[in-house]
Amino acid sequence: TRTSGFTLSKAIACAVQFDDQHCGIYAGDGDSYKDFAEVFDPIIQEYHGISADSTHTSDMDASKISGNIDDDVPVKSTRIRVGRSIEGFGLSPGITKEQRLEMEGLMKNAFAKFEGDLAGEYFPLTGMEESVRQQLVDDHFLFMSGDKNLQAAGMERDWPEGRGIFHNKDKTFLVWVNEEDQLRIISMQQGGDVKGVFERLARGINTVGESVKAESGKEFMLDPKYGYLHSCPTNLGTGMRASVHVDLPGWTKEGLPALKKRCEELHLQPRGTRGESGGQTGITYDISNKHRLGYTEVELVQKMIDGVNTLWEEDKKLQQQYFGDFPFIASTHSLVAKHVTKDKWDQLKDIKTKTSGFTLAKAIACAVQFNNQHCGIYAGDWDSYKDFAAVFDPIIQEYHGIKPDAKHTSDMDSGK
Predict the structure, then answer these.
(1) Which of 180, 214, 156, 157 is nearest to 83 (CA)?
(2) For 331-367, how does the pLDDT look when each residue is reduced to its tens digit (9 = 90+)?
(3) Which residue out of 1, 3, 14, 81 is catalytically annotated?
(4) Is residue 375 among the annotated active site residues?
(5) What are the residues facing 124 on neighbouring strands?
(6) Would you call 203 a catalytic residue per the annotation?
(7) Residue 152 to residue 158: CA distance in whole angstroms
(8) What DSSP state is assigned to residue 221?
(9) 296 an active-site residue?
(10) CB atoms within 10 A of CB 282
């Protein structure tokens, strides 16, 4: 190819070398999709399920998104990522050392112009201090070398030169430079404000594009047929993966095959996930859009929002079917989740306190509704501590580190 001297043998290196590939081909530059079209076109059409004459339209207008994730859906976090490639440079498998360094230079200048909530700092991998490296690892931001596919495809040549990570001050907007794609742009935050995450992503992409064009005259590679060009054909089109981490206890009980089948019908893709803080809970899933090509970004985000809301409505019915009226406790690592068992719930659920008619359901409402509670219980009156002692006592003992027979003495004598 003209841009980076890429060849078909380099493009199919992974499929030649390893026996576990599904797609097995990478593009070394924009030219690859034209020069090797006889190979790429049928692979892309079969993988994405598109016709030979299809075209792709992009739309990043967040105002067109209708609604959002419903407030009662136990979403822990939201993450949307896209890839972008700048014309005139090779894609990761084919990019030359000189192109990679020039591309990084363009990005450093672009990052310096970020303002407001997008403003932040760029951390080059070359010469990175250990304290910075460790912080990026702790934040789960750092990308590493050593992936066999990336190595075989030529994406780790001259490692780590010309590569780095940008993130804003709030750590809700990230850009990976010269990893699998020239640019991997990521917007994320806790909770389920998908529309807000998408809006920030769109602003960030726009800011990068305008800066690069002002400085170099270059634009993002956008093909009328295949959308935004990426090194891996599976990412063509939007290159977008919009995902949430959500608890689905009802679907978990129904079984993973059933959840996968339902997600397929909703054009979604479920993955198991390690939760943000406490590892795999057993009921937390990463739910994302299944398609990349043939739909606009707005359409895919809308599908994800609507699909997750639908899954949760169905999950509540499954919970009722399998667990009866025993509530799903969203704060799965809370003391409430540990000590409010089904047996205790059945024993205490119908009790109303004499003083204020308080119930156990009201006491644990925060732990049921939110996924960030540690203790997660409140008393509505003095009676609560007695009537619901089977729940309150062990929670109080564990939280304060006291024994069941402990007693407390008060002394407000300042003279002492």
Answers:
(1) 180
(2) 888 999 999 999 999 999 999 999 999 999 999 999 9
(3) 81
(4) no
(5) 164
(6) no
(7) 14
(8) -
(9) no
(10) 11
184 among known catalytic residues: yes
What does pTM read for this prediction? 0.82
Instruction: Compute φ and ψ for 145, nearest 5 degrees.
Output: -90, 170
Strand ranges in 253-408 using DSSP code E only, listed in sequence order:
268-272, 284-289
* 366 given a catalytic annotation: no
In the set 184, 200, 203, 292, the catalytic residue is 184
Residues 6 or more apart in contact with residue 335 via CB below 8 angstroms = 374, 375, 376, 377, 395, 398, 399
Long-range contacts of 141-145 (CB under 8 A, 24+ apart): 141/165, 141/167, 141/171, 141/174, 143/176, 143/179
Q: What is the residue type of 280?
A: Q
User: What length does the chain have?
Assistant: 416
Catalytic residue (choose from 84, 200, 203, 232): 232
| Residue 316 φ then ψ, to 5° | -60, -35
79 is catalytic: no
Task: Of 321, 340, 318, give the one whose Cα is nearest residue 329.
Answer: 340
pLDDT single digits (tens) 171-199: 999 999 999 999 999 999 999 999 999 99
Question: Has 87 been annotated as catalytic?
Answer: no
Phi, psi dihedrals of residue 70, rounded to the nearest 5° = -65, 150
Q: Is 269 helix (H, G, I), strand (E, B) or coil?
A: strand
- CA R_g for the chain: 26
